[in-house]
Amino acid sequence: MLNDILDARAVRIDDADVYFSPWRGTARPASGFLHAVFVFSIVMQFLKTAYLAGKEQGGSLEDRIRLEQARLEHAVDGTTQLIKRIGLDWLENLVFDNLNRALQEVRQHG
Predict the structure, then answer these.
(1) Nearest-CA neighbor of 76 among 110, 109, 44, 108?
(2) pLDDT tens digits for the chain (110 residues)?
(3) Ordered DSSP codes for the chain
(4) Total domains present in the chain
(5) Which of 25, 41, 57, 60 has its CA 20 to 30 A from that of 70?
(6) CA 30/CA 36 separation, integer angstroms
(7) At what angle do helices 30-52 and 89-109 cross, to 10 degrees?
(8) Domain that holds residue 57
(9) Cα–Cα distance for residue pair 66/95, rounded to 1 Å
(10) Which residues touch 65 (CB under 8 Å, ≥6 apart)?
């Protein structure tokens, strides 16, 4: 979805810069890192919704939520740097609205 939005607006991200991806445990090109932050922000919102709906018994979903929360929090500084480098307000709003919503929901209900 993010890649489609970027393509539609002819946005090209310079992949010469790399950012540490907590999902892969290694440095990733800027576009891959940004995509991961965007996608896992949405995944986190889904996980929290499923947890609150009581669709799973036991601790595995709760453990996954804690893991993804830590990964997202670890990615905040890199995301901030990358978004500032790109310099598009609408992209900043899109990415950080999802990221903040994901982290806020966990903090409120966690």
Answers:
(1) 44
(2) 898 999 999 999 999 999 999 999 999 999 999 999 999 999 999 998 888 887 656 578 888 999 999 999 999 999 999 999 999 999 999 999 999 999 986 666 55
(3) -HHHHHHHTT----TTSEEEETTTTEEEEHHHHHHHHHHHHHHHHHHHHHHHTT---SSHHHHHHHHHHHHHHHHHHHHHHHHHHHT-HHHHHHHHHHHHHHHHHHHHH-
(4) 1
(5) 57
(6) 10
(7) 30
(8) 2-109
(9) 20
(10) 44, 47, 48, 51, 106, 110
Return the number of other C-beta atoms located less than 10 Å from residue 21's C-beta.
21
Residues in the chain: 110
**CA atoms 46, 31, 89, 10: torsion sign:** negative
